[in-house]
Amino acid sequence: MPKSKLYNLNSQTVASATREWLLKRGVTITQIAELVIFLQKDYFPELTLEECELNVEAVLTKREVQNAVLTGIQLDILAEEGKLLPPLQEMIENDEGLYGCDEILALSIVNVYGSIGFTNFGYVDKLKPGILKQLNDKESSSCHTFLDDIVGAIAASASSRLAHRNQAERENRIEPPLD
Amino acid sequence: MPKSKLYNLNSQTVASATREWLLKRGVTITQIAELVIFLQKDYFPELTLEECELNVEAVLTKREVQNAVLTGIQLDILAEEGKLLPPLQEMIENDEGLYGCDEILALSIVNVYGSIGFTNFGYVDKLKPGILKQLNDKESSSCHTFLDDIVGAIAASASSRLAHRNQAERENRIEPPLD
Amino acid sequence: MPKSKLYNLNSQTVASATREWLLKRGVTITQIAELVIFLQKDYFPELTLEECELNVEAVLTKREVQNAVLTGIQLDILAEEGKLLPPLQEMIENDEGLYGCDEILALSIVNVYGSIGFTNFGYVDKLKPGILKQLNDKESSSCHTFLDDIVGAIAASASSRLAHRNQAERENRIEPPLD
Amino acid sequence: MPKSKLYNLNSQTVASATREWLLKRGVTITQIAELVIFLQKDYFPELTLEECELNVEAVLTKREVQNAVLTGIQLDILAEEGKLLPPLQEMIENDEGLYGCDEILALSIVNVYGSIGFTNFGYVDKLKPGILKQLNDKESSSCHTFLDDIVGAIAASASSRLAHRNQAERENRIEPPLD
């Protein structure tokens, strides 16, 4: 279509919208951080919620992650309002088992922190702890077909980031870098 | 949301919608087959358009492919109608360079026929031959941010399928299987 | 390198090698089928081990799957024999947490049956039921850094295939196709 | 296998090995940077080789990238020495068209900087400019089945990184951030 001559992406707008949309759809940073605790508590017993929140925040600064969050939530909202065309409307509204575009967007989030996050994503996506259980409440009037996968993926990515950071820290303890 | 008790996915409906939506958005099987010819003519000089069409048709029977086609076209249509929320509306409308969810859906199509299709996808997506050039016409009033990647991915997948089939055929010629 | 003029891929050789290598490394079709039962029993209580075995067999006929199996097992064997160069030798030998090429090869298997398999892959990879527990025995003299992810991925793919087949069957029951 | 009690990953060792192995296999940072120039010159005419080199260096600091580089080069070396088991030996030695594990490792590199890099990867992988042409010389006694895809993927990733950086810079010019 004829493109606006004045189009200039403003990354700050994209970043803010990501945070706002998550909140409006009922997901807080703390709730995602609790999923990180759930995934990592056996490996890092001393892990704090605050540290997890910082890692979730870092994941959310990535453009690739923001794109997936905004696109997924948009499709959920449109499905909720019945504004998608059939049969896509029915597939997303019913979280159809053979519809996998939600997992695909989720995987694009996990990929940013590498393949070590796949396992954690699959695990929370199956068990649906914490906020994921709420998002999956089939009696609710909301549609979170995309959002629950996306939230699980953000938690898995934050766990991967944490694993990388912990390794870096451990190495510094063993052999402190020269000045 | 409260799920319709009577929801039953009808795969035939999904398959038909995929074909119809492609046509309505101006893409024929023949045009996608021409991309396959473009990609494969150096390797299989005797390749016919009809054979390519059959391979494109086969790719389009896969549910994973249908899901990506319907989801991508739906987002294109909504962007065209200005019905997405900002800043997603602007990003898709302008085919924003840092927005990559179109490539992600495309990759989910390529993946079904394996990694040997990545190269072909990237190649047509960069060169934009045939129908891809039309879909990319920035002066048009249509938005094909998702569709052009999706069509390239279908052509790349059909090329992969063709490579697998040709190998099978070649082997039969060399050593015909025992009865 | 100068290529053998007589090189002709024989797909049957690749397929047979895949089956043999899995067996030699201690993994049977039945053990993978048991993972499929583990993953699907809640959804299809009447599922038989035989049906799962057939689905595992079908997954193993795919070239993309065979390539990943052979490549992964080869790296495991070389690590076991201490024939890899440092630091790769140490990373694979110790199933290093930040080394993710095993998950990457596994994902290439899952992808062939689409994104609905990601969740199942992550779930078994985390829980390590059945044969996966044996493969992960850190006291053993074997190295299965790649194989355990690969076996989990085959089980997840077979589960995806099963879900697609069951849907097809269900639809036929509801509305039998016209002759 | 019984794990060395003293195993401690040293990330610096992994990073150094990555740089050394690339050099030993005949690939310099400058040659990869030239691929970035090839990919980006139309969009950023003022782009310098030095700037591209810095972006390539940054890509090479990522663990996920290092893992793929080391694993791919290791397989190339073993194929060159004839130390892989048949039929994997023949497939890698002959850069078999239906063998796609090289593209899979390459994609894991591209993914780290997001899906916008897929197109660039496919494009250079098809055209084989600069160093990629040398690596693909079928008359040479070396085997670079994995390395050529990996080098193309590093160049595509560096291009993605550059696109993100340029956007950030452009935004600062338009609306300088508040103190």
UniProtKB/TrEMBL annotation, chains A, B, C, D:
GO terms for molecular function: phosphatidylglycerophosphatase activity. SUPFAM superfamilies: YutG-like. GO terms for biological process: lipid metabolic process. The gene is pgpA. CDD domains: PgpA (cd06971). It holds the Pfam family PgpA. InterPro entries: PgpA-like_sf, Put_PGPase, YutG/PgpA. It comes from Paenibacillus baekrokdamisoli. It comes from the Bacteria. This is Phosphatidylglycerophosphatase A.
